[in-house]
């Protein structure tokens, strides 16, 4: 079962930088704002359902939660590298990966995310995890590791092509059977 949505925490001081970053960085992937209660939460959608949210530390989206407070977050320093920022703010942030269909989308997202203030954490390229895994990474304003990935190995391309290949083979076999029958019946 796929995940319905993901929500990243923000705080009053980090809400606006996070909001501005994600609106700009996710635009190349087709994301738009779905619903926002300024300073409290922002829902973003790529298709018809909002699947990516930011939530602030004051009154939550669920009234039964009442007031809740999040520990203040430190913003990344744009003058520092990803490694230096992780040492400065800690390693315990979230990793979120967005899937796309092609390598060009990975590259376009990476350029937009860096332009929006993301800290480069892995330029677009094939990773050594597994053949066909093409991804890019940036740290968002509070140090979450955000990834966009195109995973399209040869065997997945083959599986995706399999229905079309099976139909073509079945058609060719049926044609040969019909031709043999027609010859045997003296029609040809």
From TrEMBL:
The protein's matches in InterPro entries, at most eight in alphabetical order, are given as:
Glyas_Bleomycin-R_OHBP_Dase, Glyas_Fos-R_dOase_dom, VOC_core
- PANTHER family hit by this protein: GLYOXALASE FAMILY PROTEIN (AFU_ORTHOLOGUE AFUA_5G14830)
This chain belongs to the protein called VOC domain-containing protein
**Lineage, please?**
Eukaryota, Fungi, Dikarya, Ascomycota, Pezizomycotina
| PROSITE patterns for the chain | VOC (PS51819)
UniProt xrefs under Gene3D superfamilies: 2,3-Dihydroxybiphenyl 1,2-Dioxygenase, domain 1
Q: Which organism is it from?
A: Staphylotrichum tortipilum
Which SUPFAM superfamilies does this entry report, sorted A to Z? Answer: Glyoxalase/Bleomycin resistance protein/Dihydroxybiphenyl dioxygenase
Any one Pfam family match given in the protein's UniProt record, by short name: Glyoxalase
VOC domain: residues covered: 2-151
